[in-house]
Design a protein that fits this description.
- The chain is an alpha+beta fold.
- The protein has 2 domains: 78 residues, no CATH class; 176 residues, Roll (3-methyladenine DNA Glycosylase, Chain A), CATH 3.10.300.
- Helix content is 30%, strand content 23%.
- Strands 1, 2, 3, 4, 5, 6, 7 and 8 form an 8-stranded antiparallel sheet that branches.
- The radius of gyration is 24 Å and the shape is globular.
């Protein structure tokens, strides 16, 4: 059997990526092209690729697919790093700086339900109103798993409440999602909320969970797993944040750790 050319390897990889051994030498020209074409560093551009030099219909598809994959991977990675950077700063910082971000839940059919985060509250272990004030328990264990974890608890035996864990692993801090402004999956939210008027769909922590279909089965989930999607502001709102005392608590009420969106569309 004749030895395959490098072009043949590219063609096989494009047609069936899992069938080929990932030899880093095969990808050197690709990396070089990305550096030259995207980052502007010195080096040959895509014309140096064997697949480009070959007159084949595969050429255009290969280059286009490579560029699109690179762009979308970079966008998704950058956005995920942005919210993780915010959450790692701690619950108070995150509760304020995630106002205006967009939270979505991916439905079974792949559609998104959710909207703009409009109200949050921060909680830390030294805070007597926090679930973690007395240490880790079976109930609050998700709060100790570090930034990017979802903590869901049942409140007053009536409704679920959703929190995003912040800080480092073991720090036991997070932020309660009190309200969102719906912008996707609104009809689904209306059904789940028994067709309440739109302004009452998600203006409370229990209402948020009911509208988004969040329950105790989501406790301990990770934002990175894909059911929950957190995206930066899209620029449609001019965001201003007001800090007030938290509501619905009886201890440490002096802390201005409730953050509310004041926005004009």
């Amino acid at each position: 059997m004749p030895r395959r050319s490098r072009y043949d390897k590219y063609r096989a990889l494009a047609l069936n990526p899992l069938s080929e051994r990932h030899d880093t030498a095969n990808y050197a020209p690709v990396a070089q092209w990305i550096r030259a074409s995207v980052f502007g560093t010195e080096g040959r551009g895509f014309e140096s690729l064997p697949v480009y030099q070959t007159k084949s219909p595969l050429r255009a598809g290969f280059l286009f697919g490579l560029l699109v994959s690179f762009i979308f991977y970079t966008k998704e990675y950058t956005e995920s790093m942005e919210y993780m950077d915010i959450l790692r700063q701690g619950s108070v910082y995150a509760a304020e700086n995630l106002i205006g971000w967009r939270l979505y839940v991916r439905e079974v059919d792949g559609s998104l339900t959710g909207g703009v985060i409009a109200e949050t509250e921060a909680y830390t272990p030294e805070d007597k109103a926090s679930h973690t004030h007395k240490g880790e328990t079976l109930r609050n264990g998700a709060m100790y798993r570090g930034a990017g974890t979802v903590y869901v608890y049942f409140s007053y035996g009536m409704h679920w409440c959703m929190n995003l864990v912040a800080g480092t692993k073991g720090s036991g801090e997070g932020l309660l999602l009190r309200s969102i402004i719906p912008d996707k999956g609104i009809e689904i939210m209306r059904q789940r909320r028994n067709y309440q008027v739109d302004k009452l769909l998600t203006n409370g922590p229990g209402k948020v969970c009911q509208a988004l279909g969040v329950t105790g089965t989501d406790n301990g989930a990770l934002l990175a797993e894909g059911r929950f999607i957190l995206l930066p502001p899209d620029g449609s709102l001019r965001v201003a944040v007001t800090a007030t005392p938290r509501i619905g608590i009886s201890r440490d009420t002096h802390r201005l750790w409730r953050f509310v969106l004041q926005a004009d569309s």
